Amino acid sequence: MPLINFKYSDLCTMLGKEVPQETLVQRIPMIGADMHDTEPGCEDMGVEFFPDRPDLYSVEGLARALRAFLDIEPGMKKYEVGDSDVEVTVDQSVKSMRPWFLCGVVRDVEIDDEFLRSMMELQEKLHITIGRKRSKLAIGIHDLDKVEPPFIYKLVDPHSVRFVPLAMDEEMDLAEILQRNEKGKAYAHLLDGFDKYPIILDKNGSVLSFPPIINGVLTTVTTGKHDLFIDVTGNDRKAVKGALDIVATALAERGGRIETVVMHDGDETFRSPDLTPSKRTISASACDKFLGTTLGPEGMVECLRRMGMDAVANGDEVEVTIPSVRLDIMHDVDIYEDVATGYGFDRFGGRHSLVQTSGSMSPLTTFSENLRDVMVGLGFNEVTTLTLSNQKDEFEISGLPEVDVVRVMNPITEDHTCLRPYLMPSLVRILRHNKHRDLPQRIFEIGNVVRDFHTQPRLCAMVTASKTSFTEIKSLTESVLREMGLRYTLEPCDLPTFVPGRGARIMMDGKEIGMFGEMAPSVVVGYEITHPIIVMEIDLEPIVALKKDTLF
Questions:
Q1: How far apart are CA 285 and CA 295, in angstroms?
Q2: Residues of the chain whose pLDDT is less than 70?
Q3: What is the domain extent for residue 333?
């Protein structure tokens, strides 16, 4: 969980009153956090927040939440947003790479050392969490006074632009930065496969940023009073917008004035940031039933205002106004959780269960645990991947037989449009994200796939190395099958997933329970991997049903 470090006096300044430190230590965990050990009277404090609340990743966001939670300033914080004359153009060349780009301006920000540290920590924590280590989004904060609008975001040849990267004094082109700069080497893999790189330039061609790698030294933010320009680039518009809103409002908490910029993105022209709140209506009776409370609509309004939201009761319904920085609110249940938090988890009474039972591990769980030991003994590392996938990875690229899938209604990303019917593509994606790591890579997963609305447990193991062979994966597969004590036969497999003549089906009692082989080069290249892959996938359900009393 993200750790937020701050000064007690700084937090009290932002709260607008001095709250006893003992009270803060008791109350902060009630909004979803773990307090780090804080000595009484110690100025330094630390809090770990749950990953679903990126709006709390800074002392500014924490202060905003506490003002509402401690009834200092309940309800939704409203920020005045003006319009600037700054214009930004999104060149359509970036649509093939990092297509989403949103910006904002915050003026008259008084920056001291403590605020500068907080701002850098917030930026980095957003990069790591919702930014997925900058693969999903990257944030830049710049001194606006040192550059001249309008700005442009576009792709350029790696050798055509030179600038001095942040914290350096030597001018480099983009290719040199990836090879020689510390940040460049750390994030170079995000640009693998592209022959042009993204850049943000001002009117005079001065470089603000080389996203998602590094900013230019020209726009370095220092202490003092400054106008700031924020840029966020990425692959997911919702995440990009959320990150911009969180950073802009954090700066506003320090007294800055938020102003929009004019964004020109293809045929679309709009102003950014847009802090318009969203609305959701919940049933008070449904919420009470869910929580086991008797708060009623008016009681829920009070609880939600304590959580930094506005709410209005209308009969049994409660209309909730949700700040744009609350990225965690996606369902009525999320509102119910905020009602419970605002009410106070310490006020919920405990009771003994009316039913006394004892449990034990199911045959599948016992089997899976033993199978994990076998795979680790064979030199594999376990991974856990999402059950959500997409038809392109599952069928089009992999060459696996197409089957009916459970589709996601109104998916928010092209990567998550269905529930996976195979484990294999999920593991290949792990290798794709780690192709800059050392070889060989040996991974496995014991996880669920979904077919015909039925969940099936499966094992998939995968190896990528400079040299692999069908003999190696056959030996590994047979080792696992022997450990299971199975009687099986092997038959040729002619799927386009495998190199012709180097794939096999695993048969048990005349039924196929799995397959293994050497992945075809076309499939490997389709997943943007440059080394050969061998793989096996086994359906565990019929094995557990057959051997539930004699597993291993």
A1: 9
A2: 547-552
A3: 278-344
